[in-house]
Amino acid sequence: MPRKQFKADLDEAVKGKHSLEHVNNCCVHEDGFTFTFTHPTLESPVTITASVPEQSDYPTAHYYTLFCDDNAPKHVAEIVDKLGQPTSMTINQFLSHVSDALSGSSDSESDAEPLQDPNSDDESDDDDIYGEDFDNLSSKPAFVMPTNTTHANPSSQFQSRVCSDLKIAKDAGFKIAYFGGLLDNYSCVVSVSISARKLGISQEAMQAWRIEPSEYIILLLQYKEGYKTNEELLALSPSSVSAHLEMRVGASKNYKPTQDQVINAFTVIGTSTTQDSGSAQFRDTFISKPLKDLLCERLVFLVRYRGAGMSWQGAEDSYRLRQNNPDADVNAVAQHFEKEVAPAYPAVVTADHLNDRTCKTHSLPLAAMQFTLRHFVRCTEFCLVCHKKLSTTVEALKPYVCDEPLCLYQYMTLGFGPSIEHEIMHQDKVVDLLLSFCYSSASLGRLKTFPTGLSLSLPRSIALPIQEQVRHLYGTVAQPPAPSPSRLEGRLQARFDITKSEILFDDANSSCPLRKGDWIAIELPDEAGSPSFHCRIQDTLGPSATTGPLVGQVTLDSKTAKWCTAFIDKYNTNFDDLQDAEKRGAVQNLLALLPSIRKMKTYLLEQSTPDLSRWVDTISPAALAILRWTLASNRS
Ligand SMILES: [Zn+2]
């Protein structure tokens, strides 16, 4: 199978589908392939031969050996030699890797300070195979983001500052690469990355976050108008920062994304979160979107507060204080200056470059990466929406939101939460267990957090109060009091024919008080135990309405009277308006209305686009929201 993929990928390359400008004439050759590299700076094309001795390991553990023909220019041969034996790249990535290396260096005039430090690479990762791109600093703008501004000529002072900033980041343990006219003061992108396995993230958390230990966590900094130093960024007016700097966070099997991936990261709007971590793509992680917002919106502000001697936490608190009250005197709050006690994480996660007063100048790429890691590795300590430090002492596995209803609302509606469809299809037993826990917790009066702020609509009749049970886990649960008049208020009396799924209102002259698509609860007081069903209105005609399938404990036998008296309770009570005790009852009853996990799984597996919200006749929006909230709010 892998060899088959190798052949397929090679076939694509031979057909020239790689769209690399300087790579041509790819053809199959013994246990590999040859191709020619052409470049305006070269007199004649250079032929390069690549072999893959272990094709059965393709595309994960194989390696390439490569050499160029004897008449290749000396500097080209040197670069090819320096590439060593690249591993784990697909053929396409390999071609682009070689092409990048050769394009970057075919123009070898550079004023850059030599940054190579042969002793600095103490990496033991097998992943670190590409050499240090950063050492190959080229002044050729191979990549220019759309910009219409003229740029100042770069001074050698500017260039040595750029090199110094990046070297500081490299020396702090990160891999640095760049794209575009970094040293020419053109638009450019700097990439700062680190292997996920160096971050001290537990295996369980890695799994929950869908991050592979072999992946790199990558911060991309896009300088739209040329590289800006820390001081230059701080001097900008707050509103103009975004015109100069944007950031993205992602993960990839390679420490350096390809040029196309970088362009994509900054141009594609609303990229979907691909959870497929197996590919070498630069992909969004579960937390990329919140991190991007946090960085782009606040980083430069926070670095400014840091300059006043605050810790990261102090700076973040001050930022929020100012957001709520622009006149607040943040300096008066002493705790902002306290040194933070970070939990036990590797030094690379807790290191704080901005706190290093021995540095004459600070490297913003490094500070930005350290801040990114603070919120990436310790994501469960912060609200995913407003980024406030959570006061909870629960050791959680997945990040969540604070108690602000608005944060929960955004979390649930903006897709930050888990995909319930994915969870049901792949972890049905876990989902079942979580729903059971939530059900018991609500029915025993122990549920204390609620899906508030989502404006769930439900029938008043299911919000039976369940008082909080604090002490006695096995104590008797008080019988819910008889429905109070208020709970019966607003019910509509009608007649119901269960065999025809038809509702008829007595007043023949008025139009039907229900509308197509409404969810209702129907109570049949004539029947023993007053069973109630829930259903969606399919259609209305005059004073009558037809319903969809009945949801709930439908156990009526065929003798059930036709056109029996029924009470209709519309889904028009706002969950947020209920007392806590009633919220428990509502959560319990809404959970009870869900189909079994097995049925939901079967349903989802049959759909081309698995989406429970399309199962309109079976799951009400309120029940679906409770299901989503139960899974999302669980962080264990
Ligand atoms: Zn929040």
Description:
The structure is a single chain. The protein has helices at residues 2-14, 74-82, 91-106, 156-171, 203-209, 230-235, 259-267, 288-307, 312-324, 347-350, 364-377, 405-413, 420-426, 428-443, 485-488, 580-592, 597-606, 621-633; strands at 23-29, 32-37, 46-51, 65-68, 175-180, 188-195, 216-223, 245-252, 457-458, 492-497, 502-504, 519-523, 532-541, 544-547, 564-570, 573-574. The chain has 636 residues and is α+β, with helices and mostly antiparallel strands. Among the domains are: 2-103; 127-307 and 363-377, no CATH class. Helix 8 packs across helix 9. The protein is globular. The structure holds zinc ion. Zinc ion (ZN) binds next to loops.
Number of DSSP helical runs: 18
Radius of gyration using CA atoms only: 31 Å
What structural class should be given to the helix and strand makeup? alpha+beta
Low-confidence stretches: 106-132, 138-142, 144-150, 270-278
Approximate helicity band: 25-40%
Give the overall silhouette.
globular
Ligand identities: zinc ion
Q: Which properties best describe this structure?
A:
single chain, 636 residues, alpha+beta, six-stranded antiparallel beta barrel, four-stranded antiparallel sheet, globular, binds zinc ion
Briefly, what is this?
The protein has 636 residues and is of the alpha+beta class. The chain has helices at 2-14, 74-82, 91-106, 156-171, 203-209, 230-235, 259-267, 288-307, 312-324, 347-350, 364-377, 405-413, 420-426, 428-443, 485-488, 580-592, 597-606, 621-633; strands at 23-29, 32-37, 46-51, 65-68, 175-180, 188-195, 216-223, 245-252, 457-458, 492-497, 502-504, 519-523, 532-541, 544-547, 564-570, 573-574.
